[in-house]
């Protein structure tokens, strides 16, 4: 099956908006083993859209997933332009009218512009938009299944997962099953090696990888359900504790769940990471159940005064040292009155490095009650990468490792 | 002039990589008043690339900016595929060989794969890559100027700004001049209104807007240098203190510069923002000159113990109140021993809201020596948006406003 993605909207071409819809669509389709083979972004212009449709017609595409141009303003012309191209009649769908009323508040009279969003091609299937007024539209024309989805990713993504992916799956010769394994603290290349040696890809089994800071997701997909389950379980068995707890999709969720289960409370003491660990933890609603707060000690003065780091330690070993990191972790638990802590001190660059302590050198200390661990890493890359990898890939995972053995 | 962007690489289609190259290209071209009219992403497959080139040939495109597929591995085939399509002869460029040796360390012998990157079309202009081995390539064929640029944005972006944009500008009938105005604390829609009323677009003057948290950039472009300068200066005069200090491109840089000039030191006390203000400040290398650190007080206990918020205040007014925010700002200055502070407390959601204090309600207090200010905002959107807008758009700008009047 060949799938093309069409993103409509000037904002994609003039640098205003990142095409996060393409990322979402790609991530979901790759799990079915059928990533799109083509993606095109164009302006909301009838001629441009129809030109592109003509081109796609010649590429033996089976499915077009289109986003954008379903808004209420007059510059949004996707539905009418597709209808015109595929010679479909348009009509006002009363269910969509009701939905729009519900979304904007049913007491209000719908404007001409709102009503425009309910005009859809005859015979099309309406995909309800939980987060907005623009309906998704699915129809079959010119031997292709075509999805028109709203532009905002917050509206597109639930529709994609709940309505588009299952339908695309049903169009496959064989229904595709998929299962993901989520890991932390292990490089994607290492996982690839393990998978290649133990659970090799075949005509029946497709493997996809996706890495973000704090998680690597390995997706197995196949028309054979049992093969998918067995493959995922086999990988889980091999990777052991590198696999995140059930239901967790990144290291932060895993750490928070373990802290909760083990009735621990957490604080962070951050120097070079400047609050990134704290921010990632508080990204998760409900983090306050275990997370009490942080001391961001960007100056030595704060490290001494709020985290009880000894002047002698700073003088003898320096701010960027295992000794300082350990004292920060100790001080964090006592100052914030928590049973667990994460402390980070390092050189994020671009300046500040010396031969013995280069840019990217980071010390991480973690503490749970009377147990502590400290480790150093040399992280390559720019300031943003060093801080991100130190915070999420390393520091949170160090605490996770200590939680597992605690 | 019509410009198309072609992004080559499987990683764009399978959801692994965000197309940040398109954003960079769009942002720079829109300043010339000529955003791309078309963007296509495809896999590293000869047939796919040539299919797309055929399509582009029919669209009267003057310039193709292509990214990706210039790497050293065998799956990277952009240069040879373009040369084949446009019937150009390939040769090994010795200057590129020297450059590659410099980048990877001149003592090493170049592998077959590295040498492959020096094979370029005859007659092409080489664009030096400061940050990698893959050279940029510019050539003219089939009545089009074609740029082949490396895939990593860190390599593409400097080449784009230094080599591509000036050349594209030189191709315009008239050379385009441009000038940007950077602002904070004022909505893009309000700026658009002001610009439309006072410095309207014309055939000679193009205006572009780009908004990110903490900054709105307004770019004027025109073949007439004086018109561009006058327009920017006129807008600066109208917007007054909403315009950032010279050389600053977002509110954080502006605040840090003002603190330095006014010999002040800064700390933050954050509840719902969880460290985002601290993180944004420490994104800037050298922030330690004025920034001492933060207390992330995610629990009331920390607010009381480390920020001296009174139990009575929490009981009487609640954690999310002007009174609590003010005491947090006061406590921050005394605990961290700084002359300035920012404090934020609010409800980031998705739960925790009540009718009188809904999700999105945020109180911000700022303090410089004996002067304080406190203000509340109702921010719409999800948890991420509420925390981002509270931190960058509002909190940092409140301190900026106090710094201006201090």
Can you walk me through this structure?
- Two copies of one chain form a homodimer.
- By secondary structure, chain A is of the alpha/beta class.
- Chain A has three domains: 3-171, Molybdenum Cofactor Biosythetic Enzyme, Chain A (3-Layer(aba) Sandwich), CATH 3.40.980; 177-242, TATA-Binding Protein; 251-405, CinA-like (Maf protein, Alpha-Beta Complex).
- Helix content of chain A is 41%, strand content 23%.
- Chain A has helices at residues 10-13, 20-31, 46-57, 78-85, 94-104, 112-116, 153-171, 188-198, 225-239, 251-261, 276-282, 300-307, 311-317, 322-336, 383-405, and strands spanning 3-8, 38-42, 63-67, 90-92, 119-121, 125-127, 136-141, 144-149, 177-183, 206-212, 215-222, 266-270, 291-297, 340-346, 361-368, 371-378.
- In chain A, the strands form four sheets. A six-stranded mixed sheet of chain A has the order 2-1-3-8-7-6, sandwiched between helices.
- In chain A, α2 (20-31) packs parallel to α7 (153-171), α3 crosses α4 and α8 (188-198) crosses α9 (225-239).
- Chain A is elongated, with a radius of gyration of 26 Å.
- The model of chain A has no long low-confidence stretch (mean pLDDT 94).
- Chains A and B meet through α1, α2, β2, α3 and β10 of A and α1, α2, β2, α3 and β10 of B.
């Amino acid at each position: 099956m060949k799938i093309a993605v069409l993103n409509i909207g000037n904002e994609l071409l003039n640098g205003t908006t990142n095409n996060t819809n393409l990322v979402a669509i790609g991530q979901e389709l790759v799990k079915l083993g059928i990533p799109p083979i083509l993606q095109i972004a164009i302006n909301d212009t009838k001629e441009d859209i129809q030109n592109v449709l003509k081109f796609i017609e010649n590429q033996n595409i089976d499915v077009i997933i289109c986003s954008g141009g379903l808004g209420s303003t007059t510059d949004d012309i996707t539905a009418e332009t597709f209808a015109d191209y595929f010679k479909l009649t348009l009509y006002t769908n009363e269910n969509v009218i009701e939905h729009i009323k519900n979304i904007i508040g049913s007491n209000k009279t719908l404007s001409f512009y709102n009503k425009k969003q309910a005009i859809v091609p005859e015979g099309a299937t309406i995909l309800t938009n939980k987060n907005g007024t623009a309906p998704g539209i699915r129809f079959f024309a010119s031997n292709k299944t075509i999805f028109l989805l709203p532009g905002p990713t917050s509206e597109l993504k639930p529709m994609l997962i709940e309505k588009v992916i299952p339908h695309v799956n049903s169009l496959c010769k064989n229904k595709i099953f998929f299962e993901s394994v989520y890991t932390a603290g292990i490089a994607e290349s290492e996982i690839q090696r393990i998978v290649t040696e133990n659970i090799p890809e075949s005509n029946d089994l497709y493997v996809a990888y996706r890495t973000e800071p704090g998680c690597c997701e390995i997706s197995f997909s196949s028309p054979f359900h049992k093969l998918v389950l067995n493959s995922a379980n086999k990988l889980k068995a091999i990777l052991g504790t590198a696999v995140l707890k059930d239901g967790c999709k990144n290291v932060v969720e895993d750490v928070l769940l373990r802290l909760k289960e083990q009735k621990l409370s957490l604080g962070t003491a951050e120097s070079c990471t400047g609050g990134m660990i704290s921010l990632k933890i508080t990204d998760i609603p409900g983090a306050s159940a275990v997370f009490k707060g942080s001391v961001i000690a960007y100056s030595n003065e704060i490290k001494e005064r709020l985290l009880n780091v000894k002047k002698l330690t700073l003088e003898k070993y320096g701010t960027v040292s295992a000794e300082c990191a350990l004292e920060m972790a100790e001080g964090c638990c006592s100052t914030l009155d928590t049973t667990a802590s994460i402390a980070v001190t390092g050189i994020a660059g671009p300046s500040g490095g010396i031969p013995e302590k280069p840019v990217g050198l980071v010390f991480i200390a973690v503490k749970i009650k009377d147990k502590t661990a400290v480790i150093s890493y040399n992280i390559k890359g720019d300031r943003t990468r060093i801080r991100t990898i130190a915070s999420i890939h390393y520091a949170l995972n160090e605490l996770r490792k200590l939680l597992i053995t605690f």
